[in-house]
Structure formats: C-alpha cells, structure tokens
Amino acid sequence: MSDKYEIPFSLNALKRYVIFFFKKFYGEYIVVGRENIPTDCPLLFAPNHVNALMDALAVHSVVPSNLPVTFLARSDMFNNKYIAKMLYFVKMLPAFRMRDGVENLGRNAEIFDKCVDILHHNKALGIMPEGNQGEDHKLRPLVKGIFRIAFAAQEKYGTTPAVKIIPIGIDFGHLVKFGKHIIINIGKPIEVSDYMKAYAENPVSATNDIREKLRIDLNASTLDLATDTYNKCFETAVEVAYTTVQKHQKLPNSTVFKFVAKQKVASKLVEIENTDSKKIVELAILCSEYKANLKKLKLRSWLFEHTNFNKALLLLDGLLLLCTLPIFLQGFMLNALPFFTPVWIRKAMKVEYGGFNSSLHFTFSLFSFPIFYMLQTLLFAYFVVSTWWIVISFYISQYILGKWSLAWYNEFRKHIAKLRFNVFKRRKNPVFEKTQDLHKIIIQLINV
C-alpha cells in the first residue's frame, strides 16, 4: 500500500494534539454509537454541516487514531499556495463548485479519481453531504457527489459488501461559545453494495434511494427543524417544551436525553405544520411574542419551568458563590489573556458566518493557551518560586482554575437570573406574568 495513504508521524502528532484540545474545548464531549464505525473497509463519513472546521474535527475525534480521513473542502480555501500546502498536509482536497467557475468544474474529475483510489486502499473520506453549511438546526438537501463517489468505489467489489457510508449527526450546545456541549451521534453504516443491483439498472433511481436513506438516518441523528417558514418559531417552541417531554416520558436528566426530548418536540412541530396550518400560524405568533418578552426581561426560557425559587437556597447559593469568589478571581486572572485574545482576534476579523467563529476561536486557542500559560509560568518561576515541582503544579493549575472559573461564572449568571425571576414574580410584573402564560399556552398547543 502506498505511503501517501498513511498518516505520517508529524501529522499524527498534530492530530493527537488538536483532538485533545478539541475535546477540552467543550464542557461535555459526548459520543453515541462509536461501535457503528467498522474497521478494515472503505468508509465514507457523512456528517451534517453547521460549524465549519469543528464538524470535520468531530469526525476525526471519533475514528481510530491510526485511520486517516481525507476531507473535501471548498476550493477557494486553496487559493493561497501556502494555505493550500497546509491543507494538503492535513489531508484535505478541493471540491470545485459552479460558483468557482464553469472552467474549473472539470478539475473535479481528478479529485473524484483520488477519492475513489483512497477508498480502494481501505481508507476513509469525509464529505459533507449537504454541500454547504448553515446555522439553522435543519438538514439541507443532500447533493449527489458523495453517492457518485460511493458507487464508483463500490463497482470494484460488485455486490460484495465493502464501501460503507457512516451518517454522523453533530449537535452543538452553542455554535460559538466555549464550554458548551457537543453530541456526536454515529449512525449505523449504510451498505453501498445493497444498492448496486438497482444502480446497474437505473443509476438515478438508486442514487435517490440511497440519498433518501442517508437523509432519514441524519434526521434521526440531528435536531432537524424541517421547516422552510417557521424556523425561529420551531427553535423557540423546542426550548419551551422539551423539559415537559422529559418529565412526561420520564427521560433521564442528561444532555443526551435533553437532545432526545428536543427531537421529539421537533417531530411534533413538523406534524403540526403539515396538518394544521391555523395552529402553526398561531404558534408562530405566540413564540415571537414569547421570545420578545424574554429579551425585555433579560431572562432565559428554562426559568419558566419553575413557579419560583426557594429564598433559603438562593441565599445559601449566594454565600457559596461569595466564599469561592477569590478562587474565581485567581482563575480569571490566569486565563483572561489566553481566553480573550482569540475572541478579540475573531471579532477583529469580522467574519460574517457565525458558524465559522467557533473554528477561528478554537484555532487561535491552540496557540494562545500554551503560549500564555508558558509565559505566566516563567514569570511565576522567576518572581515567586523556582522549585521545579511547584512550577509544574502552577502550570497545570492554570488550566484547572480556568475550567473551575468558567463553571463558577455560569453558576453566577444562573443565580442572578433566578433572583431576577423572583423579583419580577413578587412585583407582579405584567410582562413577566404574560410570559408565564405564553409558556403554558405554547406547551398546550404543541400537546406533547
């Protein structure tokens, strides 16, 4: 087997470093269905695409460390020769689209042949089957490229099982914010050989069949708010109603089952849109008003799952936060520069697509945290203590204190929100009371 399909030592070391930090970038890194990734066969990974580089890294993070995955990416990313050289090094290939010029579409034939050759060497490809990315929780139409490559590679094996498409659904707690969750749902392999007989008889029909199969599997693995008109309404309604679903169906209170509950609400909303046009219009109006009220009150939807918050517990939480404030301040001071420097750079670049901000933040963080941690450690060793084990402990403690400070800050924000909620309730704020009513009505309309 040609060495060009293996992972060189330098790339393997880089990959391990990046994936280690990728997992730490999220507050919860959750993988479901890892057993669905087979070994020693040609694999086509097909993730949904909302978050630029992070989607590809999500795939890299779940495959065996010795399995190289070559990704197709927009050809304009390869325009700069130095960047192109780096992209080729990390096993990325350009895919040319109509917007890149009709004269360039012919260059896809060479890339197509390379992709087939990779699969014939029992390696893996990563192709975003939607062909583009979007910030909405919605699957976009799947393009045919991934299936053309799959069928071309499978022709070598006929109807003998070989090439497999692995659907991967990725759910982000937030597209930009650091410390939120990521869920990587790995679906069961789609056996391309099952479609080869039909493909020989009618390629168009077989392609449509396998495309529909992948769409169904991705739908089951993602939060697919399948609407063209009511996306904002669906997003709000899901946030309002998913906790009710959890309670009614006695689902465990975990991030994974919160996601499952949101999927159930999304399915119900799609059903309402398809069967009751009057109700979906009414729901859209209510959700719009509810969202506007939340903004006025500066409150989050989860607060309205409660009637009020116990004053004694709030006092206890406040005292605990006050007592641990010095630890938060230490962690904040040690992590402010490495954390905020990528944010400042990202904002200065003024990237239009929000889903790309997380990739920029993560990429800059790969350098900012090690560099600032090292500089701060050297200053600590020079001005405070130079004993080697204390210096090493200080270096490690910067990360631990940083994670702890982020958790403290999140709890502090929740505490303030709970206090605001109680104040609005006690004063019988009319907007607050209307929002409480809207919360109940939306749940009743969805009837989950």
Q: What topology does this entry show?
A:
Blueprint: H1 9-25, E1 28-32, E2 43-47, H2 53-62, E3 69-74, H3 81-89, E4 92-95, H4 108-120, E5 124-126, H5 145-154, E6 164-172, E7 181-186, E8 190-191, H6 196-201, H7 203-221, H8 231-248, H9 255-275, H10 277-297, H11 311-323, H12 325-349, H13 357-383, H14 388-426, H15 430-446
Parallel strand pairs: 1-7, 2-5, 2-6, 3-4, 3-5
Antiparallel strand pairs: 6-7, 6-8
Q: What would the keywords be for this entry?
A:
15 helices, 8 strands, eight-stranded mixed β-sheet, alpha/beta, Glycerol-3-phosphate (1)-acyltransferase
Characterization of the model:
- By secondary structure, the protein is of the alpha/beta class.
- It folds into three domains: 3-221, Glycerol-3-phosphate (1)-acyltransferase; 231-297; 311-436, no CATH class.
- Helix content is 59%, strand content 9%.
- The protein has helices at 9-25, 53-62, 81-89, 108-120, 145-154, 196-201, 203-221, 231-248, 255-275, 277-297, 311-323, 325-349, 357-383, 388-426, 430-446, and strands at residues 28-32, 43-47, 69-74, 92-95, 124-126, 164-172, 181-186, 190-191.
- Strands 1, 2, 3, 4, 5, 6, 7 and 8 form an eight-stranded mixed sheet that branches.
- Helix 4 crosses helix 5 (145-154) and helix 11 runs antiparallel to helix 14 (388-426).
- The radius of gyration is 25 Å and the shape is globular.
